[in-house]
Each structure stands twice: as structure tokens, then as C-alpha cells.
Amino acid sequence: MAGVSILPAEVLLSKRVQEMVLNCEEPQPPYICRDDCTDTDVFVPPSQPPIIDFSILSPLESSTAQEELQKLRSALCSWGCFQAIGHGIPKSFLDKIRQVAREFFEQPMEEKKKHAKGVEEFEGYGADPVPAEGQSLDWSDRLFLDVYPEERRKPKFWPQNPRSFREILEEYTIKMKMFTEVVSKAMAKSLNLEENSFLDQFGTQAPLQARFNYYSCCQRPDLVLGLKAHADGSGYTIILQDDVEGLQVLEDKNWVTVPTISDALLILMGDQMEVGSQCPTFQIAT
To answer: How far is Cα 212 from Cα 70, in angstroms, rounded to an integer?
Structure first.
């Protein structure tokens, strides 16, 4: 990259990674982060994040449910994350939200930019705001939306195309709201707390956000990360992966690749949950 002028982060963030890829641009130094956040070799441990089957957690009094609650407690106290199956959301619907997100990012740039955010803003289409000094930029584009409570929504950022986007996201929000209640109760019970303790802590109007990440191909994948290592400030994060592995969690000082399970939802503890319980906060990268 000798002889190439280095653009400031503010200028790079006003562009889109997808545009840079289409123009065959190599990542500039602000995107290069491999040397300071993770090794290129990913540790493959004998085990991965535990899988919790929520379909057998009701009724909670059954012996099978109690065994699954103990697995959940162990997952929270050791891993700080787990993969949830048996959550009641059909795989066919999860495929719909994956597909509509893919269709959004595959649209012409002019269409996506109708919902663009400013460099310093967080909500909308684009990249995260300018990071702290010394932090690298993410090699990805994303769409970030407030989805609950409804009065927090900003319609200008909600895509009109694909035409089914809004309807599917609204339904997804309803399903996630219901699932967060189920997860919060199960986690509380597994930690021998009152069932509604986390729900009371978060409140009935606890905000929900949806974030869709798009990771473009890169000519130098050895130098960049789609999403740099971080811990979420939320109570917990629910992640729906696609069929391409790449998401990693930091476990016992090793980066572990999370297996993709088409009908599973990955639950990651955030900073708020660490404060409110004995669960560890987890770093993630992809």
C-alpha cells in the first residue's frame, strides 16, 4: 500500500465497505486490526458453547427441566453464552429474516443510502460511529434500528424495499420480545433467583434493537475483522447467524468459533447482566 494516501476514519466511514470492494480497494490502515486484537489461528477446543433446549424447560418442575436448568446455570457461569434451540420460532421464519436482510444489502447502493446514517450517528444504514482513538474500523456495513418500544422507532431508517422487510421485522420483534421473557425467567430460575428478577430489573419497556451485519469479501482477510472484539453493553444479545461460520467468542483466553446451527439462537451475556448476576461478560468478534 506504499504511496497510497491514508484517509481519516471520518472519511472512510462516510463510504461503504461494499463500495470499496466493488472498486477493488484494499483495506487502508484504519481497518487493519489483526495484530492488536486476535491471532490469525483460531483455537479449536474439545467443546463449544453449550446447547440449551428450551422445549423441555416447561414445566420447570419436571426432572428433565431441572437437569436442563443446571446445564443453563453451568453455561452462564462458565461460558457466559449458550445456543438456544427448541425456542418455538420456526426455522422457516428464521430463514425469512435472513433472506430479507440479504435482499436489503444486495440492493443498489442508491436504494440503501436512502436510510443512511451520519458518521456520528448510530441508528440507520452505514458503519458504527468513529471509534475511540487507536481502535480499528470494522470491515462491514450494518443496518441498526430501534424496534421496541414502538415510539422509539424512526421510520426514515426502516427500509421500504424489500417490500416485506418491515412486516417481517415487526413480526421478528414480537417473537424476540416473547423469547426474551422466556430466557430471562429461565436464567433467573437457573441461578436460584426469583423468576421475574431480571424482567423486573429490565422493566416492561426495556428497549430492543435490531442490527443486521453484512460482511463483504476482502482481498486481505488476514488483516481485517468484520466486527472487532468487543463486549456488549446490553443485558444480553440474541444472535441469529447465517450458514457461514466466522463468529468467535473469547473463552479462557482463546478465541472459539461458534458452530452455525440453522435453527439456533446464540445468547450472549452483556455488561448489565454481569453487574446483575455472577455471569461473566463475554467478548465477541467476527
So the answer is: 32
- Give tens-digit pLDDT for 92-102: 999 999 999 99
The pLDDT, as a whole number, for residue 6 is: 61
Cα gap 252→228, rounded to integer Å = 18
Q: Among positive and negative, which fits the CA dihedral 212, 256, 285, 278?
A: positive
Confidence check: pLDDT of 35 > 60: no
Q: HSE on the CB side for 285, CA within 13 Å?
A: 21
Cite the DSSP H helix spans in 23-133: 34-37, 63-74, 91-105, 109-112
The set of cell numbers assigned to 191 is: 441461578
Residue 91 CB neighbour total at 10 angstroms: 10
Confidence (pTM): 0.87
Residue 64, CA atoms < 13 Å, CB-side half-sphere: 8
Nearest of 191, 181, 225 to residue 39 by alpha carbon: 225
What phi and psi values does residue 143 have, to the nearest 5 degrees?
Answer: -120, 120
